[in-house]
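Entry: Type-F conjugative transfer system pilin assembly protein TraF
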Amino acid sequence: MKDLSTKTVNNSINRLTIKSLPLLLLSLLAFHSFANEPPKGWRWYNEAKALKAPPKEEERLPPNSVSTVMSATEQMQWFHRTFEEALNDATINPTDEEKNLKLMKLKKFIDGKTTQTGMTFKKLINEHPEYSYTKDRPTEQAARATYYQGIQLKNEATVRQLVQEGWGLYFIYEGQDALSQTLAPSIQDFAHRYHIELVGISKDGQTFEAIDENRIDKTGRVQVRYTPALMLANIHTKALRPLAYGFISQKDLLSRFHNIATNYQDSDF
């Protein structure tokens, strides 16, 4: 074996170094990457990470259902529509038992409500007698005569009061009018009974013998829209107040005096 020269050895080392350098660099890079990874301990595998459960969606409450309560008027309007439909349906289908039965049920329902209302009114009238019509106005025949007698006495007292205050009666008429001719004797009798001064005023120049004192309105001083007419006249103040137009009974005329005296504030119904 021949001895190797120093130069030959150096050249060989240099070539080996050049060839080995890339491998060395790759090894260093791999080691650096491996060193930066977190240590895995003695286990050679990565533990499986627990999967996070998706967040539970909050349970949504159902939307509030708003109940609309119909007013009393709306309820009655609905019932009237329902009843009218049932009535019309049964009328045009007279042999349909189901439709006529529905109508009968609705009528019975109405009868029941009417009866309940009547009984409630009876109860309330006893608890609140001030709202009773019959308390002051009896409906029984035995009591009505007494009731009307009381009204007449009150009205007669009113007439006497008006006479004392100077009120008299004008009877405006047309002598050719048949209705005025029929009314004249009754008016004069009324004046005699209650001692009222009565003056008959003719608009057409023809007077009635049934009236004790007549005058003819030649100047048109007394103006009325219709005849026959009755007016209260005050001899002191010359005031005139309309009392009645057309034919009127003595009973109603007596009531009119009371209406005028009380300015229609005291009901006589």
